[in-house]
Amino acid sequence: MNPLLKKNVPLPLYYQIEEYLKQKIEEKEFEVGKMIPSERELSERFEVSRMTVRQAVTNLVNAGVLYREKGKGTYVAEKKIEQPLKGLTSFTEDMKRRGMTSSSLLLAFDVIEAPRDVRKKLDLSEEGKVYCIQRIRIADDKPMAIETTFMPQELLPHLTEDIVHGSIYQYVEHDLGMAISQARQIIEARAADEEEAEYLNISPHSPVLHIERKSFLAQSVPFEVVKSTYRADRYKFITDIDR
Ligand code: 16G
After folding, report:
1. Keyword Transcription: yes or no (predicted)?
2. Which of 15, 177, 209, 219 is most buried by a 10 A CB count?
3. Fold classification of 81-238 (topology level)
């Protein structure tokens, strides 16, 4: 038996190889953005079949620890951003806290008749108009999410493209002096469609996290419904739970 693997433990070989690769990444022997040894090299190193190695590598690719480049090899992915599910923060604040620079690419800034579901969620009348703002949120020059924000026009009559290039939360709180008090957020897993994949720079059908947030000002006045698509290979959401 190869000394790198343990025989007397009830852990499958591919799992042990996964753990080995993760440890090498943690110890920075395999560096972010660099290629890991080929399947052939790894199968020789562990003295196992290439199928076993492939299983381990595929699992780590699916978990976002590694990524494959067609015709080249398998590389170490950047560590995912850990986003706490506590505290109602904005993208700009989240990135700043991590020492990253945030920016947005504005895809759309329109005033439209609210779609039915949005109208209901924002407690609007039949004629209620909303801003429909679509932004790609970028951190350190990399696209992280596509966000579509709906906000009642009558609540923010002077909103401009310039403002939404920056931080909407900053504008609402600091410039308008309105307090953002709470939100409800739903997270679901999905596969990226063609358009999302292109904007997020991932392959079509890659896993993404779809998040819908409805946020309120004081006195439970809803002020935004935001539908976003986050790269599942770049983000994980963390929550502490008490019993
Ligand atoms: C976050 C929020 C989004 C909010 C935005 C404001 C999620 C899923 N979404 O991206 O609801 O509108 O921040 O960001 O957390 P800004 O102040 O930088 O414009």
Report:
1. yes
2. 209
3. Chorismate lyase (3.40.1410)
Q: Does ligand 1 lie within 6 Å of residue 235's CB atom?
A: no
Gyration radius of the chain's alpha carbons? 22
Pocket test for ligand 1, best of 90, 102, 150, 169 (most atoms within 8 A of CB): 90
Q: What is the DSSP letter of 219?
A: G
Tokens in use for 94?
């989240």
Domains 13-76 and 81-238 share a fold: no
What class, spelled out in words, does domain 13-76 have in CATH?
mainly alpha
pLDDT tens figures, 190-235: 999 999 999 999 889 989 999 999 999 999 999 999 999 999 988 9
Cα 223 to Cα 106: distance, rounded to the nearest angstrom = 20
- Which 8-state DSSP code applies to residue 71? T
ipTM: 0.98
d(CA 174, CA 169): 8
**Cβ(90) to ligand 1 under 6 A?**
yes
